[in-house]
Amino acid sequence: MWREIIGVVGDIRQANLDEAPAATIYRPYGQIFEHDMFLLVRARTDRDIAPVAAALATELRGIDPSMSWWPVQSMHQSIADSGSVRSRRFVGRILSGFSVLALTLAAVGLYGVMAYLVIERRREIAVRMALGATRSVVFKEIVGEAGRLLLLGLFAGAIAARWLITWIASLLFGVTTTDLATHLVVFVVLGTVGFLARYLPARRAAAVDPMVALRE
């Protein structure tokens, strides 16, 4: 049977989001009676879908009261309830939970290590200040060292992350393995924690009387 092509559309994923698009032909419903029909309606509204669904059901019953229609749901809900999304949502939540836990542990560990390094140098700071170094000079030097260490650590972390996240690419939809927002959040959190871990102890250490620190 000859068919007249009246248009070409983009590829879609008909069954699952992780399957390659299959060859698909759209035909008028009047030419294929062996399939169920799904009616798609585009609603130009930002309100809840419930009023639109109720009005649509009323209109459909008015056209043919004997026809049985399935419940109306939004396209977003259809995608969210699909098998390909449901099977990965649980895994995604577990990965997200472990990611937040890992970020928290990294932040706590980073703060503890960097703060300890400053506290460990209290005697050195006291000696330098007793020999004439000003508080501002000592403070800027410690914070500057922290900045260099943070940049080096973030750079090494970015390289390591680039190689370690490729294995979860098949679990992501709409988010690439090089998602900039996620990387920025991690870098900002760890960078802020690392800076505070140096800034606060260094400020306290620079404010201590050198003689008191030497006696310790």
If you had to describe this structure to a student in words, what would you say it looks like?
Helix 5 runs antiparallel to helix 6. The protein has 216 residues and is an all-alpha fold. The protein folds into 2 domains: 43 residues; 132 residues, no CATH class. The chain has 7 helices and no strands.
Summarize the structure.
The chain has helices at residues 49-63, 75-80, 83-120, 122-130, 135-164, 180-207, 210-215. With 216 residues, it is mostly helical.
Keywords summarizing the entry:
2 domains; mainly alpha; 0% strand; 216 residues; 7 helices; elongated
The number of helices is 7
Whole-number count of domains: 2
Average pLDDT: 78
Q: What distance separates the N and C termini?
A: 96 Å
**Quantity of strands, as a count:** 0
Strand content: under 5%
Q: Give the low-pLDDT segments.
A: none
Derived from helix and strand composition plus strand pairing, the structural class reads mainly alpha
C-alpha geometry: elongated
